[in-house]
Amino acid sequence: MTGIAGRTGRLRAQQNTKPREDGCERCVCCRRQVDIRKDTDIEFRPFYVEGAGQLCYDCYSELYGRS
Ligand SMILES: [Zn+2]
Questions:
Q1: Ligand 1 mean position to 49 CA, how many Å?
Q2: Is 18 within the bounds of a domain?
Q3: pTM metric for this prediction
Q4: How far, in Å, from the CA of 1 to the mean position of ligand 1?
Q5: What percentage of the chain exceeds 70 in pLDDT?
Q6: Owning domain of residue 49
Q7: Which of 2, 10, 24, 47 ranks highest by number of CB atoms within 10 Å?
Q8: Distance 9 CA to ligand 1 centre (A)
């Protein structure tokens, strides 16, 4: 009963995760994936630092949040 259904399910799961990873930015500090697409204009990105790159919320608030 699990033969074909199990196989196609696993295959579909792999295909779903790959383009999402490729299309999303990573934090330049901790390398964690952030929920911002690479084709997003930098003017509309949260936590983007000119000259440094894309940061995640945690790194951004640690670097710039408290002053
Ligand atoms: Zn980070």
A1: 12
A2: no
A3: 0.64
A4: 44
A5: 66
A6: 24-67
A7: 47
A8: 32
Task: Give the burial string for 22-58 (b: 16+ CB within 10 Å, else e).
Answer: eeebbbebeeeebebeeeeeeeeeebbbeeeebbbee
Span 32-61, average pLDDT: 95
Q: Is 48 domain-assigned?
A: yes
Asked if 28 and 55 touch (Cβ cutoff 8 Å), the reply is yes
Structure tokens of 29? 């500090």
* Within a domain: 29: yes
Which of 3-17, 27-41, 53-67 has the least mean pLDDT? 3-17
For the chain, how many structural domains are there in total? 1
Element containing residue 8 per DSSP (H, E): helix 3-23
pLDDT at 1: 66
